[in-house]
Design goal:
single chain, alpha/beta, Rossmann fold, 2 domains, seven-stranded mixed β-sheet, elongated
Length: about 260
């Protein structure tokens, strides 16, 4: 194990910061279908070293499970850690077909400062109860993150964490922006100043923390709206519906 390596698969907005985070404490190489993103020389130098952890940071798609299986066959890791945002039950499905422990550890943070946010937020993780060597995998992951100055907390199940990432992180953020959009439309309809109107809640937010004021912009990017497709909940699609309605009423365009 001491002569082994970790592999980060997918060197995008999550994978690259994960690679940088781990590089300061252990031997880690990056892999991507785009060879221009890789340090090919370093990758080749450690091609014969055993893979301890395979950190999966590829975008979720219909072929996610098959892609993870391909990566497993390619690198033969002792443990897989999924950092990507994934559909509920994905970890369980993969664990049922792979013989190594699979940890799910959702990533939180803003892409522009992801490396900083990785150290700022607790790195939640979870593993299926029937996973082989679950205790060993959890201990190894905790120790790895600790060496990177990242706090960790274990959840009861991957499903809880899979839902948490979608329901109480990105979708909840979308709801908050929706209300800002709605209140902005109302303010403009009655020709009052949006910021002045929201001053009424400033002290409530200060003392109770339950009146957050959001910027009423169009929800673009590739987190909040795309993540809605990962969960079969029609009610959450109201976020997208109102977002598009706001765009039409305010003359905004999709970014």
């Amino acid at each position: 194990m001491k002569n082994g390596k970790d592999v980060v698969a997918g060197l995008g907005e999550i994978g690259l910061p994960i690679l940088k985070l781990l590089s300061g404490t252990k031997t880690v190489v990056g892999f991507d279908i785009n060879p221009k993103l890789m340090d090919q020389k370093k990758f080749d130098n450690y091609s014969n070293a055993d893979t301890l952890f395979l950190h999966v940071c590829i975008p979720f798609s219909k072929t996610f499970q098959s892609n993870v299986k391909k990566l497993y066959k390619q690198f033969s890791p002792q443990c897989i850690v999924i950092h990507s945002t994934i559909s509920p039950y994905t970890t369980k499905k993969l664990q049922n077909i792979l013989s190594v422990p699979i940890i799910y550890s959702a990533t939180r943070g803003v892409h522009e400062r992801m490396l900083r946010d990785l150290r700022r937020y607790t790195k939640f993780f979870a593993i299926e109860k029937n996973a082989p060597k679950a205790k060993w995998a959890s201990t190894q992951f905790r120790n790895t993150m600790k060496k990177c100055d990242v706090k960790t907390k274990k959840m009861s199940s991957p499903l809880t964490l899979e839902l948490a990432k979608i329901v109480v992180d990105t979708s909840y953020y979308g709801w908050l922006i929706n209300y800002a959009q709605m209140s902005n439309i109302i303010a403009r309809k009655h020709k009052v100043d949006y910021d002045e109107m929201w001053e009424f809640s400033d002290e409530i937010q200060k003392f109770l923390g339950n009146r957050p004021k959001m910027f009423p912009g169009f929800i673009g990017g590739h987190c909040v709206i795309p993540n809605l497709s990962l969960i079969d909940e029609k009610s959450l699609w109201q976020i997208d519906k109102f977002n598009n309605s706001f765009a039409k009423k305010s003359g905004k365009t999709k970014s």
